[in-house]
Amino acid sequence: PGNIKQELSLSDASIWKGFVAMIKEGMWHIWIGIDHILFLLALVLPSVMIWRKQEEEKVAPKVQKEVQINGFSFPLSSFAKNWSPVEKFRPAFMYVIKIVTFFTIAHTVTLSLAALNIIDLPSRIVESIIAFSIALAAVHNIRPVVKDREWLIALGFGLFHGFGFASVLGDIGLSGEFMTYSLLAFNIGVEIGQLLIICAIFPVLYLLRNFKFYPNFLIYGSVVLIFISLYWFIERAFEVDLPLGAFVYKILGLIGLM
After folding, report:
1. N or C of the chain: less Cβ packing under 10 Å?
2. Which phi-psi region, left, alpha or beta, contains residue 8 (left: φ > 0; alpha: ψ -120 to 50)?
């Protein structure tokens, strides 16, 4: 309300300025897309740990069954006992970058198809699958199905996240001869935004990986992600507003985030 006027120069324009603007748009969209960030978080949480199958326990070092914090004992999840920390930063970090890159490749394909009106999926279906993708990625953290192939999860669900990104371009109203530049710039922006998020989160997780609570944090954090994603899935799939969502938005509004 306090900023209702803008001055725009119609002569001060160029392809490069438009390209940079779309990069910023892509970065901004990934930063405000909580569902996209939570999906990335579900993929990154186990990146500083190694899954150890039950039959490997005979040769692997034993992991304690409980955590001691300030004199209190907290039992480790039976699933948490199968995780052990990685030894080196670089291989684990590069693997995360690989996962994010496959995610970008996937959503670039479907974003382009949607923006060019080649494929058009109902928003209700797309947003529901995006929400559900967080749950499946989190379930994989509890009991890995495609060990060392998490990039397949990113690739598969990245296709649907691309259709979600397409709604942003639709709101902007892109068309005409510069569509290719706009698509390229937007996807570059999304990739940069994702990499910045990973660069902010991964070092912290790497430092925490050796703490005894981290395996439990991985498991129970994934459980929280499952509940959040299923909550969103119900809202989006059945087009209902559950009470908790309205409460959260109200709180975010009070602190100026919405």
Report:
1. N
2. beta
- How do residues 86-117 score in pLDDT, each as one tens digit? 999 999 999 999 999 999 999 899 988 888 88
The DSSP letter of residue 146 is S
pLDDT, tens digit (0-9, with 9 covering 90-100), for 64-80: 444 444 444 445 556 67
Contact 214, 220 (CB under 8 A): no
Tokens of 106: 């996937």
Q: What is the pLDDT of residue 63?
A: 44
DSSP string, 61-130: PP--SEEEETTEEEEPPTTGGGEEE-S-HHHHHHHHHHHHHHHHHHHHHHHHHHHTTS----HHHHHHHH
Please indicate, yes or no, whether the overall pTM of this predicted structure exceeds 0.85: no
**CA-CA distances (angstroms) from residue 90 to 86, 94, 193?**
10, 6, 20
Tokens 């009070």 sit at which residue?
A: 254
Angle (deg, nearest 10), helices 89-115 and 179-208 = 150
Residue 204, judged by CB atoms within 10 A of its CB (0-12, 13-18, 19+), counts as: exposed
